[in-house]
Write a structure and sequence with these properties.
- The structure holds two protein chains of two kinds.
- In chain A, 31% of the residues lie in helices and 29% in strands.
- Chain A contains seven helices and ten strands.
- In chain A, the strands form two sheets. In chain A, strands 6-7-8-3-9-10 form a six-stranded mixed beta sheet, with helices on both faces. In chain A, strands 2-1-4-5 form a four-stranded antiparallel beta sheet, covered by helices on one side.
- In chain A, strand 1 and strand 2 form a beta hairpin.
- By secondary structure, chain B is α/β, with parallel strands linked by helices.
- Chain B has a single domain, classed as P-loop containing nucleotide triphosphate hydrolases (Rossmann fold, 3-Layer(aba) Sandwich), CATH 3.40.50.300.
- In chain B, a hairpin with a 2-residue loop joins strand 4 and strand 5.
- The relative contact order of chain B is 0.19.
- The chains are: A alpha/beta, B alpha/beta.
- At the A-B interface, helix 2 of A face helix 2 and strand 6 of B.
């Protein structure tokens, strides 16, 4: 499934924060390629720069230095409107706290990323339906998030991430708010999606979950310290 | 605006029914600012979920502007909620991958509006809540108080008659919490009916009336000692 041209290429990425004249190097000189169809985990202790790296990958933040190429196009220095457009199309987000909106139904939550596109209603409905089918939540379409368990809510969040047919799924500690059996079920779901061709990049501090990925990038103090491959 | 008559909510596990709400009868008039109080587990959030039509698994009668909500199909209930009710959540419920401007646009996606109308409503909300300067930032770049301000702006953007808030200041510092309560008072003066769930006497003092819940029942503190208790005990068995 994986091809040779990287889907994502980070080159010499640095991120510096200034607070009261103190310079914090959240990321220093990070190089990272992710090919289409890969499942990559980014692991490391809290404060190592994982979330900053994920924010940059997700076009939620810009690097202080370095270049980011997504699908062959440089995206490190494009304007905010263009970043929004690319983010909405290319990236599916899965968050630790699910990030569902409580007064929207399951269906509406999944439809959200599509509502920013000029897509015919019929196609939208079909995409929402398909995404919910893929995560096994189609029967809960008219429920509200509070009527679901945590594991079910995260499945809906995964469906939302899938609905826009993004190039890559970015998952930030997707099991952090779940008990271990629900956590395993979400991991299993991500694996299934990966087997079906999806590119997945997951941030986790938990080495057990990182093992689900093909490849793990270990971050420490803002630097890549090690890369390991999971035996197939 | 709202009348509940003998509303009950229970969860069934095997043959055991556990009640969350018992025989709730109450009315809320247009223009009121009501606080629902009570200890954890009293049924406050469940009640708010029913009032907001986010829950369907209850018994009893609920009239909203004379519409019998208990008789509505899911589709119509959802449509009614969209048209008239705005929600504010303790955890803000903003989408972390959308900017402030995009978050405000979310409820408008479910209305039949032209792009230019949507943009005008978003611009108005940014102005009204003084967050124009934040429009291109993401929730993670804002303080809790600012995030809740965006949450409130989003709840109000489609011009609801009723604002429901579940512990809206629960994650905020006192000063930010007071700011939110002042804002609620202003909105209420301008005509929005508000029902908030709160633990805080101080927050409740900003509203005109308090409903106290305990173990799923509405407390009636003014009933004579011993007057209501036997009836209540009888109802339980």
């Amino acid at each position: 499934m994986a091809s040779n041209t990287p889907l994502i290429s980070l080159d010499g990425i640095r991120k510096v924060f200034f607070t009261d004249e103190v310079e914090t190097h959240a990321l220093s000189n990070v190089h990272l390629d992710i090919r289409a169809g890969e499942y990559v985990a980014i692991a490391g202790p809290s404060g190592c720069g994982k979330s900053t790296l994920l924010a940059i990958l997700g076009l939620l933040d810009t690097p202080s230095d370095g270049t980011y190429t997504l699908n062959g196009a440089p995206v490190s220095s494009i304007d905010a409107a263009e970043r929004s457009r690319i983010r909405n199309r290319e990236i599916g987000f899965i968050f630790q706290a699910f990030n569902l909106i409580g007064d929207l139904t399951v269906y509406e939550n999944v439809e959200l990323p599509l509502s920013y596109r000029n897509m015919p209603a019929q196609e939208r409905r079909q995409r929402v339906q398909e995404s919910l089918d893929r995560v096994g939540m189609a029967h809960r379409m008219r429920h509200y998030p509070a009527q679901l368990s945590g594991g079910q809510q995260q499945r809906v969040a995964v469906a939302r991430a899938l609905a826009g047919s993004p190039s890559i799924l970015l998952a930030d500690e997707p099991t952090g708010n779940l008990d271990s059996s629900n956590g395993e079920a979400v991991m299993e779901l991500l694996r299934d999606l990966h087997r079906g061709g999806a590119t997945v990049c997951m941030v986790t501090h938990d080495a057990r979950f990182a093992r689900h990925a093909d490849r793990t990038i270990h971050l420490f103090d803002g630097q890549v310290v090690e890369e390991s491959m999971e035996a197939a | 605006m709202i009348t509940l008559h003998n509303v009950e909510r229970f969860y069934q596990t095997g043959s055991v029914k556990s009640y969350v709400l018992r025989r709730i009868s109450m009315s809320v008039a247009r223009g009121e600012f009501l606080s629902v109080m009570g200890p954890s587990g009293a049924g406050k959030s469940t009640l708010l979920g029913i009032l907001g039509m986010l829950d369907a698994g209850w018994n009893g009668e609920y009239f909203f502007n004379d519409v019998a909500v208990h008789a509505l199909k899911a589709r119509d209930r959802i449509a009614l909620n969209k048209r008239h009710i705005g929600f504010v959540f303790q955890q803000y419920h903003l989408l972390d991958n959308l900017t402030v401007r995009e978050n405000l646009e979310v409820p408008l996606a479910y209305r039949d509006l032209k792009r230019s109308e949507r943009e005008a409503l978003v611009a108005d909300a940014l102005d009204r809540f003084n967050i124009v300067g934040k429009k291109d930032l993401f929730p993670g770049q804002l303080s809790g108080g600012q995030q809740q301000l965006v949450g409130i702006a989003r709840a109000l953007i489609a011009g609801p008659q009723l604002l429901l808030a579940d512990e809206p200041t629960g994650n905020l510092h006192t000063s930010q919490g007071n700011m939110v309560m002042e804002l609620f008072k202003e909105l209420n003066r301008a005509g929005t009916t508000i029902i908030q769930v709160t633990h805080s006497e101080l927050n409740a003092s900003h509203g005109d009336r308090v409903v106290n819940l305990l173990d799923g029942w509405i407390e009636h503190p003014h009933l004579p000692e011993g007057g209501a208790a036997p009836a209540r005990a009888a109802a339980m068995w």
